[in-house]
Amino acid sequence: MDLNNAIAGRRSVRDYTSQGVDEKVIENLIDSAVHAPSAVNEQPWTFTVVRDQSVLDRLSQDAKSHMLSTTSAGGHSDHFASLLSDPNFHIFYRAPVLILISASAQGLWSVEDCALAAENLMLAAYAVGLGSYWIGFAQSFLNTSAGKSMLGLPAAWAPVAPIIVGHPKVSPPSVQRKDPVIRWVG
Ligand SMILES: Cc1cc2nc3c(=O)[nH]c(=O)nc-3n(C[C@H](O)[C@H](O)[C@H](O)COP(=O)(O)O)c2cc1C
Fold first, then answer.
1. Which atom number of ligand 1 is nearest to the Cα of residue 13?
2. What percent of the chain has pLDDT over 90?
3. Whose CA is nearest to atom 25 of ligand 1?
4. CA-11 nearest atom, ligand 1
5. What pLDDT band is residue 76 in, cutting at 50, 70 and 90?
6. Distances in Å between the alpha carbon of 175 and those of 6, 12, 114?
7. Which of 21, 145, 158, 166 could form a disulfide with 95 if both were Cys (CB 3.0 to 4.6 A apart)?
């Protein structure tokens, strides 16, 4: 696929079929992720692949409770609170796979490195017809000791990008972009 088509066409997919994703395909996505640039070529990323739906169900439940008890009122929070209080809302949209990118080293730029790997992974997923989506709602719970222990992550790892992947049921419409703010100096 042409790179510009992939960049323009990728969407956050919130509706998946129950079809799983082949292990080889997941490995290829991770291979695309590790081609991202990283500061001092540190490559501080690790990948935790979760396909057990009972683990994803528990993670969704605990992440919702954690978000509700830690997010303060105001801004987007009222909308978030009603979403997170809904017992039918599953933060992973029942996608078949979660690929969690965590920083294994506390480098100055390890979060940026992992985010770049995440974008590569999402573009690579789109290029092979898969949907993906960064689940911000999972992040703060995954960074607690309870969240890390649920996935068996070492305490020193810092979860950065929880990305779900699966076969999309529908192609989401494109999302309006704001005009970029550009300042030319010189
Ligand atoms: C860091 C990050 C966290 C996100 N977390 C969520 C989330 O928890 N729930 C959600 O519905 N969308 C989440 N999104 C998806 C954004 O809503 C989406 O990227 C944005 O609306 C633009 O749509 P597009 O990805 O289809 O271009 C997240 C995106 C990013 C980059």
1. 26
2. 90
3. 12
4. 26
5. low
6. 15, 9, 24
7. 166
44/33 Cα distance (integer angstroms) = 12
Q: Using CA atoms, how far apart are residues 30 and 118, in angstroms rounded to an integer?
A: 9
Q: Within 10 A of 128 (CB to CB), how many other CB atoms are there?
A: 13
Spatial distance between the Cα atoms of 131 and 125, rounded to a whole number of angstroms: 6
What is d(CA 121, CA 132) in angstroms, rounded to the nearest whole number? 9
For 80-96, the pLDDT digits (tens) are 889 999 999 999 999 99
Across 96-122, average pLDDT: 96
Q: Identify the residues whose C-beta falls under 6 Å from ligand 1.
A: 11-12, 134-137, 175
Question: For residue range 48-63, what is the model confidence (pLDDT) as tens digits?
Answer: 999 999 999 999 999 9
Mutation test residue for ligand 1: of 16, 91, 93, 133, the one with most atoms within 8 Å of CB: 133
Tell me the residue length of the chain.
Answer: 186
All residues at 6 or more sequence positions from 152 whose CB lies less than 8 Å from its CB, including other chains: none
